[in-house]
Write a structure and sequence with these properties.
The protein is elongated. The model has no long low-confidence stretch (mean pLDDT 92). The strands form two sheets. The protein has a three-stranded antiparallel beta sheet. It has one helix at residues 2-16; strands at residues 19-22, 30-34, 53-60, 62-65, 68-71, 74-77. The protein is of the alpha+beta class.
Length: 82
């Protein structure tokens, strides 16, 4: 319970500074992406990416300050894509 309170306060402080999560609506969803988007649009383990079209599940949101992206959303790449 204490950790939950600390995390809520942490997120409140981020929000008050203008640091917001993004791409939250896709959390847990399977998404398609091109290999050129690896670590540009989504953060991921690049060794799991094959040339061309890939798919994966969005695990964590990205974070941005205004329009500046601080942390890219993290994607788990599907292994069957290889």
């Amino acid at each position: 319970e204490d950790l939950k309170t600390v995390m809520k306060n942490f997120l409140f402080v981020f929000n008050s500074l203008g640091i917001m999560p993004y791409d939250t609506k896709n959390l847990g969803k399977k998404l398609q992406f091109d290999s050129e988007d690896a670590n540009v649009v989504y953060s991921m383990n690049e060794k799991d990416v094959v040339e061309g079209q890939n798919s994966g599940t969005l695990k964590y949101p990205g974070w941005k300050y205004g329009e500046r992206k601080l942390v890219l959303p993290f994607m788990i790449v599907d292994k069957e894509a290889k």
